[in-house]
Amino acid sequence: MIQDQQNSLFSVSYVIVVIGVMAVVFSISIVFMMAYDYHIYLAGNRRRKFSFADFIKREQYYLYILVFFLLIIIGELLRNNLR
What we know:
Elements: H1 2-9, H2 12-44, H3 52-58, H4 60-81
Helix pairs in contact: 2-4
């Protein structure tokens, strides 16, 4: 009885859902940090206007963190599923 409950708690699909939710929450928080940081930058420089290219250039550090995190998550999921 207890063994069945443990197997259902730690099933592969449950773990993948938890990891997916964590990745989505992390991604959303990184996007909000990027937007807030760029908003502070624009508030300090009144002559600057919003430009998507400037946004990407200024916030590339956050983009690198996000891409690195997502690549690690995807790599681990693929590695564990290919076993």
